[in-house]
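Homework help board

Subject: predicted structure for assignment chain

Our instructor gave us this sequence and asked us to write out the predicted structure in token form, then describe one feature. I got the tokens but I'm not sure how to describe them. Can anyone check?
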Amino acid sequence: MTVDDTGSGAGEDGRGNLPAADPGDPGEDPHPLALRLEQLILGAERRYTPFQAARSAGVSMELASRFWRAMGFADIGQARALTEADVLALRRLAGLVEAGLLSEAMAVQVARSTGQTTARLAEWQIDSFLEGLTEPPEPGMTRTEVTYPIVELLLPELEEFLVYVWRRQLAASAGRVVQAADDEEMVDRRLAVCFADLVGFTRLTRRMEEEELGELVEAFETTSADLVAARGGRLIKTLGDEVLYAADDAGTAADIALLLVETMSNDETMPELRVGMAFGTVTTRMGDVFGTTVNLASRLTSIAPRDAVLVDSAFAEELIRTGDAPSSEAEAAEEAAAAEKEGEEPPKYRFALQPMWQRPVRGLGVVEPWLLTRRGDPGD
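My token output:
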């Protein structure tokens, strides 16, 4: 729903953009049900052109255009398609800037991150959730006839749940920030980063029906997301055949990676999995992670054996430093023998590390991967 401040009406409507019909052509009326749904969801009728909305909010057309564009909405020219809610949103963002609480650049980032996140959520809810619920309950009824009452019933409940989850996530993220060692660590942090990739996915896309492929991807993403969350990691994103997650410590990331391999290998419907992990400084932006550590984890994934986990030397050193893995199996055997001689319990390591061949990795030089395995019973 971006603003064309030239007033030329050069808008185009994409899925998820508002309004539902092409608002760039003021002469074209939207579908009556689409308009009713829009009014129900937004809680207000169309009243303003972009220029009128900007003026009512007390902001310049340039700033209004930046905000709306950042939220991911299509251009609408000067169609009368905006509501009081749009004016209020503009006023709030601009007010944060005027009060000095946010810079203009940061306010645009807030708009962009919120827009990108909620756009994906809205697409999922419409494509997967709402379509299933609006199957006509009786012969002769159309989906159109049942959509409005279903949305009317669900809207307040979904809104409350969305706010609850957002507050929970905000609290968790704020807690991680305040526990950072210093101010620099709040942006550039040392994290364990992991990619998990389904083997042979491209071949599967040629052999499987679309519905089967969709079910496989959904099962992979759901299983991965559940395991990552349950063990204390953070899912960064899913890419169909690949997931990216991060954890504050190497031990947590290692446990999740091995659990992913163990879980997928026990599912006959799933392809084999390969995993690559690295530990080091990571730059975080808008919920994503960037930097050499992330690139290295991705490269290790591409060379990992099937149903195996490769880690970089920094990751291996961190596991050794925290006592989660011995520096070598020979050292572990010596420690066990010494403990037995003294009548003491030997050190209990969770993981084992095996150095692999050194090899050049594109853009990162020569790296020495380590094969990560589990020692003893994984437990729960």
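Reply (TA_rk): Your tokens look well-formed. For the description, you could write something like this. The chain has a mean pLDDT of 81. That's the kind of observation they're looking for.
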